[in-house]
Model the fold of this input.
Amino acid sequence: MTGTGSEPRRAAKLRRIAALVRKETYQALRDPSSIAIGIVVPVMLVLLFGYGLSLDVKNVPVAVVVEDASPDAQALAASFEGSPYFATHLVRSMPEAEQLMQDGAVTGIARIPADFSRALQSGTAELQVIVHGTDANTARIVEGYAGGAIAQWQAHRGDEGYPVPVAPIAVQSRLWFNEANDSHYYLVPGLIVVVMTLIGAFLTALVVVREWDRGTFEALFATPVRADEILIGKTLPYFVMGLAGLALTILGGMALFHVPLRGSVPVLVLASMIYLLVALGIGLAISSATRDQLVASQLALLLSFLPTVLLSGFLFDLRSMPVVVRLLTYLLPARYFVALLQTLFLAGDIWSVILPNMAVLAAMAVGLLLLARAATRKRLA
Amino acid sequence: MIDALSRTLALIGKELRILFKDPRTRVSVLLPPVLQCVLFGYALTYDLSHVPYAVLDLDRSAASEALLAEFDGSGVFERVANLDRAADIRRFIDDRQGLLVVQIGQDFSRDLQAGVPTQVQVIADGRNSNTANTALAYVGSVVEAFGTQWRASRGLPGPPIRISMRAWYNPLLESRWNMIPALIGTLTMLQTLLLTSMSVAREREHGTFDQLLVTPLRPSEIIVGKTVPPMLVGTAQATLVLLVAQLWFRIPFEGSLLTLYAGILFFLLGAVGIGLLISSFAATMQQAMLYTFTVLAPFTLLSGLIAPIDNMPVVLQYATLIDPLRYAIDMTRRVYLEGAGFAQIVPDLWPLAVIGALTLPVAAWMFRHRLT
Done:
């Protein structure tokens, strides 16, 4: 490249890129499926995650079996009925309750045995709780709520003059960053990660392999465009679409679910742009490395959706996963973005978290784009 | 009749050859379900097994040591730091060094000895409030057990009512038992939908679908020819996941295989029907992929895999009625863990049959009318 020739060359390069960008943009805008993934999917996911996914268990259907006719037993049954967490079915006998559980009509059985009031005098009273263990998480919560109903009953007895035993040690807990214990606070940042991954990876997963499949890539090679120009031309339009989806998700999540943004906006935008490049890079790398659209779609699906939802630390705690699985999650870009967004939204600009995670994502973006370029160039030869 | 059968069989044979001629496609159809099942089987649990925490013990008494020993001996809590000042808490939590800080005030042992109700403070990182709440519940049970033990050692009465807890179908209450059977349907649907919608879209994009329609094959025969191969693949994938669940994770299978496979067949019929319906709207493979995903995401999130359907708002609960995965997950859990018989899973089967019976004819109609 000579000094005099570089100016026109650069201009020509820019012109070629602009032409490719224009072509790709037209192609994307003409295709209703791009709109589906760019707008419909983000809006749908905001609504589903925001309104649909709730791990807060309420109105658990429970059969209460009262085998003891004493006032104490009746009072305990009443405190189950009064609990906002239970929808109680009062039944007379255990077989009746068991039938309800087998039919799936109730999730648990609370049994007040026949000798309840007598045992209460001697301090050996027992409440039997049988839970439908299929959903272990809900089952544990039911056990906790049963304890709550008993505490309610005790307080009531205390009003009537019975001594109420006080626990010697109480736990006073505080939930930092989310004092109100609102599950949207972690769902919305996680949701942004999922949406960005999907938009990025899905939009670009087929853009290169499609041209191979249709034979239009050879035509592209006959033109003066080079591999990196093709990649820029194929990334830029989707980058802009991805940013639109991002804005939609962030604003929607904040407006509908009142999730605070305690960090600064420029940092959030920068981090999201880097992650969008990573997601687009995943799609481009898949697209450049495969020759078959089916295989490319399968890879995009397998590498993006479920791993991002399940392995990023957004729903399931990474520290409790076995070592091998935990090590694998370090390869997953979503993991770093989840850490970034949870911190940026809820805790603020904590640089000791932001900088390392951002650095890893930036390195991944560069690596993936170089990989895509290498895979495309190899094909050219 | 015989002709129709042989034509359909020819199409099925062709579809299977396309799918399995390429070693890469072969691998991409059979390997991922196994890998995903192992990986997600370990990952999908709301139980916590490692909770890193820090201690700020201002009391430094025998009693506070004894309480902390209960935490360290619980097998769940791992002490990663001993803090000296309350000012250090902020940094510990902010930097995500641990999930929580247990703070014991300086009056702790004095109050405890005097019989005055005392407390421990716990500060948790609420950035993932679900994880934090689970950890706090564990803290509560450790402290409660310590308190009960402490009272008993001084001859004081325990709580008036003891809860004796039993869990049916999953005695140790392992989340994994719940999650892995659900993966049979989830992982299978992922690929069945994609395979089905892509197979028609591929023919469209390559122009061979027009050729297919000028052959003596009737639309109904095309539908059958396009339905059976992904169902076979789906059955194979479901079998692989089932094997991983039993041989790797050792989750006891309570039901009958015949019932389970009958259920899987109904489920695949519904899933493939939806896949074909998507493909009748898609002109290219790109569109088929994106549309597939557009329905796959809500199907997965609303299926009850991640959060129970009963907790959803009523409107969304109605929306789950068209989700084949919802029925598949319920059906597999019931057959696998509860040993439900055929009669008991009928409530899950007929909606799947309805989904199949609606989507397949509509797809056939769409194929014909797109052409003319």
Notes: DSSP finds 15 helices and five strands in chain A. The longest strand of chain A covers residues 125-132.
